[in-house]
């Protein structure tokens, strides 16, 4: 199965460099996506352009694809399921969850001169990054890509209720499957509460398992592709 990999804020397709060969060993076809506004110099890139790029990758896949979103890009993966519910075999959400239609894509940090730069590691101290060495943190920060405001400030619109029939796997890094289930039961993840097929997988990592647990993350995603 084609496994489409979408990295979260400040990252591009290279974030999956250690995951891709492990997925290949397990017999699947990983595609680490580089989207508009991810290192191409296009500071005017929009969320609609990113959605279109992922949808194009789904359309080009050899059969229904597994779409993997990390962190904020979980919303991007879910938007893709909304646009192509018949062509997305499953959505894997790594360290994130989709928001309801009409909410801002990523409003946690305000843009500066039209982009949202990487804010440094201070906002992510604790369980998010405790498993990352100083060297890994330095490498990630050095390669961080400022995200255009046209992406972060855009309102995500979901329109096709067939998305609720697309199977979903929540990959739980800095939180547990039990916590995710509690949030779902409490109504904190209304999009997933409407889904007919949601399962949960634990991974012993912080928020960026592609850097700290690439082999285990690849195994989990390969299992998702078989499910």
From TrEMBL:
InterPro entries: AB_hydrolase_1 (IPR000073), AB_hydrolase_fold (IPR029058). SUPFAM superfamilies: alpha/beta-Hydrolases (SSF53474). The keyword Hydrolase applies. GO terms for molecular function: hydrolase activity. Residues 3-219 form the AB hydrolase-1 domain. It comes from the Bacteria. Keywords: Hydrolase. Pfam families: Abhydrolase_6 (PF12697). This is Alpha/beta hydrolase. It comes from Nocardioides currus.
């Amino acid at each position: 199965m084609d496994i489409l990999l979408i990295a979260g804020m400040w990252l591009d397709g290279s974030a999956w460099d250690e995951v891709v060969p492990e997925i290949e060993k397990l017999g699947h076809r990983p595609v680490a996506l580089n989207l508009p506004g991810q290192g191409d110099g296009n500071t005017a890139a929009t969320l609609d352009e990113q959605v279109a790029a992922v949808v194009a990758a789904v359309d080009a896949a050899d059969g229904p694809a597994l779409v993997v979103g990390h962190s904020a890009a979980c919303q991007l993966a879910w938007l893709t399921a909304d646009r192509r519910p018949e062509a997305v075999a499953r959505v894997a959400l790594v360290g994130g969850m989709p928001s309801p239609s009409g909410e801002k894509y990523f409003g946690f940090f305000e843009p500066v001169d039209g982009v949202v730069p990487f804010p440094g590691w201070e906002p992510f101290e604790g369980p998010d990054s405790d498993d990352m060495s100083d060297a890994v943190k330095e490498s990630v920060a050095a390669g961080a890509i400022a995200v255009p405001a046209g992406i972060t400030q855009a309102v995500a619109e979901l329109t096709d209720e067939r998305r609720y029939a697309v199977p979903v796997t929540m990959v739980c890094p800095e939180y547990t499957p039990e916590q995710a289930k509690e949030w779902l039961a409490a109504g904190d993840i209304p999009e997933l509460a409407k889904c007919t097929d949601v399962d949960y997988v634990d991974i012993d990592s912080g928020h960026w398992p592609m850097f700290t647990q690439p082999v285990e993350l690849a195994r989990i995603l390969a299992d998702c592709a078989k499910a």
